[in-house]
Amino acid sequence: MDRPSMLDGIRVLDLSRVLAGPWAGQLLADYGADVIKVERPGAGDDTRGWGPPWWGPADARMSAYYLSANRGKRSVAIDLATPEGAAMVRQLAAEADVLLENYKVGQLARYGLDAASLMALNPRLVYCSITGYGQDGPLAQAAGYDFAIQATGGLMSLTGEAQGTPGSQPQKVGVAVTDLFTGVYAGTAILAALVERGRTGRGRHIDAALLDVQVAMLANQASNHLVGGGVPRRMGNAHPNIVPYQVFETADGHLVLAIGNDGQFTRFCELAGHAELARDARYASNPQRVAHRNELVPILADWLRTRTTQAWVDLLEPQAVPCAPILDIQGVFAHPQVLARGLRVDLPSDTRVAAPPMPLVRNPMRFDGAAALADLAPPALDQQGDAIRAALARGEGWPTR
Questions:
Q1: Residue 238: inside a domain, yes or no?
Q2: Cα 181 vs. chain centroid, distance in angstroms?
Q3: Which of 59, 103, 132, 357 could form a disulfide bond with 346, CB atoms 3.0-4.6 angstroms apart?
Q4: Contact by Cβ (8 Å): 247, 256
Q5: Strand, coil or helix: what is 214?
Q6: 136 is annotated as an active-site residue
Q7: 21 in the same domain as 84
Q8: What residues make up the domain containing 50?
Q9: How far apart are CA 82 and CA 89, in angstroms?
Q10: Sign of the Cα pseudo-torsion (211, 213, 219, 223, in order)
Q11: Cα–Cα dist 248/273, whole Å
């Protein structure tokens, strides 16, 4: 089956580094766009040095972190601070459809590479700026990091052991979730701007801020506060609006029980051998279960300890009672559903050195049954630089792949 390439013909100039911008660029590459990644000479993207672990031989190694966000791109090393480097970027931007950057507000204006300058050169350009706090406001000049934004944006106040648990403290999420959400939000905004450009012929300047995204990500918790007036607090693995919806101990480990409606609760009680509990007025409906959480949860906890995790899964899952074991990452990639869906991919390297294939996680989207996946492995620093610079020097414009 042919790989979906819905963005075939779209040219993306990626000046971003670390995660949010590169994640958006990789998303567009998976959908078929031609992405040129501009990196600092000598060092490249910061994440190239974020190891171990490393992939490849010592003289051509790349960090696993870098590999996760840079599939489908060509790399060219350009010093933007030099007149020659800025001129090369302008040449590329003149024929690009999209430009991604995550410099501090105003920094690219020093080199004539800001949105106003490049959109005057190329009115069709969709220029996406990703920053910590946005293009305006009192913190516009501040550097933004995922960890800090998770703190400032409220996510850490909701994450971690329940408030008052001895020795507990707010926790960050185990991956840089604000960066990743910002990359996805930026990608969808870029696609929307490209659709509009098809009607108007003009691009847009997209202002994507990590803090804005994090506040939007508060979702039902933000709504709980805005509507109810209370301040949501850490609840460990419990849910503020649904009961039972949390982690329980089993005879040999733990189980997620995620009951979302009264019918599921009734089936759970029947399967557990306690059908009478679902008929108790205190627990028959979700609002009542939330009101009587402190009485109900210990009862259920006693039940769950009587069987192993797998025994509960085998009992509940066939009867549509939502539950799941808690897998580590090794377990995830050995899971039969993950294997069946082909979420691990191994792309052959093109670094001109003997190296094993690169193990990567594919784009999760499928189109007409086919996975969207750029077939170009993450590039070594300046891997395509000579060819790109030569094409620009000859005045050929955007270099062909």
A1: no
A2: 5
A3: 357
A4: yes
A5: helix
A6: no
A7: yes
A8: 11-217+342-393
A9: 11
A10: positive
A11: 17
Same domain? 253 vs 121: no
Give the pLDDT of residue 239: 93
Q: Which two tokens stand for residue 179?
A: 């960066």
DSSP annotation of 371 reads E
- Chain centroid to CA 121: 32
Is the domain of 202 the same as that of 90?
A: yes
Residues 84, 127 within the same domain:
yes
Looking at the DSSP assignment, which residues form a beta bridge with residue 14?
Answer: 37, 100
| Total Cβ atoms within 10 A of residue 295 | 11
* Residue labelled with tokens 């995620």: 258
Together in a domain, 250 and 323: yes
The size of the chain, in residues, is 401
What φ, ψ does residue 34 adopt, rounded to 5°?
Answer: -90, 110
- Count structural domains, the chain: 2
Kindly compute the dihedral angle of the four CA atoms of residues 168, 179, 104, 387, in this order, to the nearest 10 degrees: 140
Beta partners for residue 209, in sequence order:
131
Rounded-to-integer distance, Cα 281 and Cα 127, Å? 57
| Phi-psi domain of 167 (left: phi exceeds 0; alpha: psi -120 through 50; beta: other) | left
CATH number (domain holding residue 19): 3.40.50.10540
- The residue annotated as part of the active site, out of 30, 179, 212, 382, is 179
- Domain-embedded: residue 107: yes
Structural domain ending residue among the three candidates 280, 295, 327: 327
Indicate if 212 and 347 belong to the same structural domain: yes
pLDDT of residue 351: 60
In a domain? residue 314: yes
Q: Count other Cβ atoms within 10 Å, centred on residue 195.
A: 9
Residue 318 sits in the same domain as residue 180: no
| 75 touches 37 (CB < 8 A) | yes
The model carries a pTM of 0.93
pLDDT along the chain (401 residues), means of 10: 89 98 98 98 95 88 96 97 97 98 97 98 98 96 94 96 92 97 98 98 98 97 96 93 96 96 97 97 97 97 97 97 96 97 90 77 95 92 95 92 87
Residue 289 backbone zone (phi > 0: left; psi -120 to 50: alpha; other: beta): alpha
Q: Is residue 134 part of a domain?
A: yes
